[in-house]
Amino acid sequence: MVRLVARDSGALYCRPMDPTDITLAIAQRLAQVRADIADTAQKAGRRAGDVRLIAISKTQPAAYVAAAVQAGQRDFGENTLQDALTKIPPFAGQGLNWHFIGHLQSNKAKLVPGHFHWVHSLDSAGLARRLSQRAQEAGVVLNALIEVNITRDPRRHGVPPDALFALLEELVAASLPGLALRGLMAMGPYPADTKSLRTAFSATRELRDACAQRYALPDFTQLSMGMSGDYAAAIQEGSTMVRIGTAIFGARDAG
Are strands 12-15 and 97-100 parallel, antiparallel or unpaired? Predict the structure, then answer.
């Protein structure tokens, strides 16, 4: 096991530690993040319950997930199938919701329905069809968020904002069973000041609202925006899901 020790920045790094200490450290950090979310939401005129906390457990050991579960966390995010599919089965039957947040190749789409409840990185009609087909075969409904490259950053995945309506129109026309279109996912600019972050997140919210209205999608209500370094700005601009890893689990020590 490792010891989670706070740096001045608030991140955690690794030293030998027993399981009881791991559980306590993660529980304390979860409590702080939840309190920060509630406070930020209240100041923005929103309820804490309007914002779902997704603990990003990618690269983290199963013991850390177990500690978060013990502290009441139920939503977890993973970005690689290889890691996730070894981590998810031991927690079967515990009422957890698993979110796939990484870039997803169409040839691996078959592995998502049945293991994950949400996918945050839908970015093409071809991927949507594969997910729909596999979800039907598995007898489940997969909640999907369309990833929008709101900053048009060439280093990032996602649909350019000006291509979003065309993609959504194609998806709605296809009437894909097993796939529920629930909203948008976006990443804020980095590095960025608060004004730039809020501008990007506000633009994403406006896109979601326009999509829901144009295509009469009453369940197209979700906004997955905000990570450990910028979730306050995201909540102020209407995020309904924040994806937080470092502030809960800490940084993995490279040494």
Answer: unpaired
The dihedral through the CA atoms of 214, 215, 220, 225 has a sign that is: negative
Q: Tens digit of pLDDT for each residue in 125-138?
A: 999 999 999 999 99
Three-class secondary structure assignment of the chain? CCEEEECCCCCEEEECCCHHHHHHHHHHHHHHHHHHHHHHHHHCCCCHHHCEEEEECCCCCHHHHHHHHHCCCCEEEECCHHHHHHHCHHHCCCCCEEEECCCCCHHHHHHCECCECEEEEECCHHHHHHHHHHHHHHCCCEEEEEEECCCCCCCCCCECHHHHHHHHHHHHHHCCCCEEEEEEECCCCCCCCHHHHHHHHHHHHHHHHHHHHHCCCCCCCEEECCCCCCHHHHHHCCCCEEEECHHHHCCCCCC
Cα-flanking dihedrals φ and ψ of residue 230, to 5°?
-140, 15
HSE of 194, CA atoms in CB hemisphere, 13 A: 5
User: Percent of the chain having pLDDT more than 90?
Assistant: 87
- pTM listed for this prediction: 0.91
Other CB atoms within 10 Å distance of the CB of residue 232: 21
Question: Of 220, 138, 153, 160, nearest to 189 (Cα)?
Answer: 153
Q: Which residue has the tokens 């070894």?
A: 86
CA 171 from chain centre, in angstroms, equals 22
Per-residue model confidence (pLDDT) at position 250: 86
